[in-house]
């Protein structure tokens, strides 16, 4: 086990985050994962769990301190929310919009920046979960505008990490998982959690060592910003 690659997955209590934990574990990775609440019942036994609500700065600091002696080959910030179902900027309260942008754009990048020093130089991969809906080119009609705008903000703030990731010579990824059957994606989604998570892990492994900032979906298709 000492030669195993090590991953830190932020937001892994369910859905795609837990799916990625499963795939990595099956491929022999040693995984540390975070949850806001209880450890998920279906989690692989080998996973080390840490409590984290990404919106709480003291909790982010505590996780950083607790993991300060660790080195990771992959850090994946997956946590995210959809925001109000109606997705209407006029109906949404200021507090709902603040929470959406805090959870999807601000906190993931703060988390990533704080944990980046733990990532191995050169081969390390720092990945943040976005959506193709964030793209002005891929989402021309502004489908789900509030959610999509929060992920567009995430993409630009992720780009802001590039100076730091270049110094460390690691690869920076903005990942689109496809449309996935989770609590967020719903039952009509085209992909199972296993299909999406397998593809996402394939991209982590394929892009390690490449450097730069890539906007890529689970299948390996490169997306336009
Ligand atoms: N499903 C899709 O089709 C799809 C498409 C494009 C992008 N995405 C993105 O993929 C990611 C995962 O989505 P999913 O479909 O797996 O959704 P999900 O089943 O709703 O899971 C969301 C995950 O994020 C965690 N989370 C939310 N707020 C958090 C916070 N403040 N601190 C820590 N963890 C938090 C949740 O933890 P709790 O259990 O504690 O709530 C849960 O583990 C999200 O970023 C989403 O925007 C999904």
From TrEMBL:
It comes from the Bacteria. InterPro entries: Sc_DH/Rdtase_CS (IPR020904), SDR_enzymes (IPR052184), SDR_fam (IPR002347). PROSITE patterns: ADH_SHORT (PS00061). Pfam families: adh_short (PF00106). NCBIfam families: PRK08177.1. This is SDR family oxidoreductase.
């Amino acid at each position: 086990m000492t030669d195993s690659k090590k991953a830190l997955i932020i937001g892994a209590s369910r859905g795609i985050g837990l799916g990625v934990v499963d795939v990595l574990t099956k491929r022999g990775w040693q995984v540390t994962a975070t949850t806001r609440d209880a450890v998920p019942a279906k989690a692989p036994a080998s996973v080390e769990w840490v409590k984290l609500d990404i919106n709480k700065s003291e909790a982010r600091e505590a996780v950083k301190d607790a993991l300060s002696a660790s080195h990771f080959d992959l850090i994946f910030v997956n946590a995210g929310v959809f925001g109000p179902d109606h997705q209407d900027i006029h109906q949404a309260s200021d507090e709902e919009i603040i929470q959406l942008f805090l959870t999807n754009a601000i906190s993931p990048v703060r988390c990533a920046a704080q944990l980046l020093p733990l990532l191995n130089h050169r081969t390390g991969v720092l990945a943040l979960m976005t959506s193709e809906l964030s793209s002005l080119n891929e989402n021309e009609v502004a489908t789900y505008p509030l959610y999509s705008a929060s992920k567009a903000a995430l993409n630009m703030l992720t780009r802001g990490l590039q100076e730091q990731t270049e110094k460390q010579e690691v690869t920076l990824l903005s990942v689109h998982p496809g449309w996935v059957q989770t609590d967020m994606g719903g039952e009509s989604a085209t992909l199972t959690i296993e299909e999406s998570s397998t593809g996402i892990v394939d991209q982590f492994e394929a892009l390690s060592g490449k450097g730069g900032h890539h906007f890529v979906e689970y299948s390996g298709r490169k997306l336009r910003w």
